[in-house]
Amino acid sequence: MDFQLPKIIGHRGAALTAPENTIAGLQEAIDQKATWVEFDVKLTQDNIPILMHDDTLERTTNGQGFVSNTTLVDVLKLDAGSWFNIKWSREKIPTFEETLQFLITKNIFPNIEIKPNQDEDYQTTLEIIKILNIMWPRNRPLLLSSFSFQSLEVAKETSPYFPRGYLIDRYQNDWMQKAMDLSCYSIHCNYKYLTKNWADSIKKLGYKLVVYTINVPDDAERAYQLGVDTIITDCPGIFLKN
User: Residue 200 and residue 204: Cα distance in Å, rounded?
Assistant: First the structure.
């Protein structure tokens, strides 16, 4: 797939100003002029992909317990907005399928972070790929990313035509070998731990360099000076004013 990542991607939508991983959050990023959005996808108990970052429900919904122990029917009953602001009390957890349809309608492109529950790396990726192959037009850009080597390995084996980004928190001695094994398009680093030497190594090998999560213009300027291609931010509008 021949495409170019933008300089700015909205993190979980626009997580600073709207509830993360919701349609409202994605719309907020669009309203802030983002053309790409990042969000997390994991499985319910009955293997339906939904947008959710945490393994448990408590932080971003009025539910309790593990996502992996909750059926889609029960997930859809939850309030996913009030924790952020009461005005979003009717906001629900969207399914992955619903989200893709929304993005297609809005002409927005996704950085899909595969965020498996424990021991569900393989199944989560398969379910995501299955829906993408049915719904997502092959000529429209997207990017799959994950901290899970196994998830990206499954993506490479089953759908090599979808570009892959390997997520890394702190520096790992084997990052280069893993990126090569996965035939990655991009490396996604935690900005707090990105050094000039590491950035130089990533760029020298031809990978796109993506960093998360930058919300301050001064940090963004330094990141671009390091050779960063794309910044993932909770507040895309700050960087997309013009």
Answer: 6
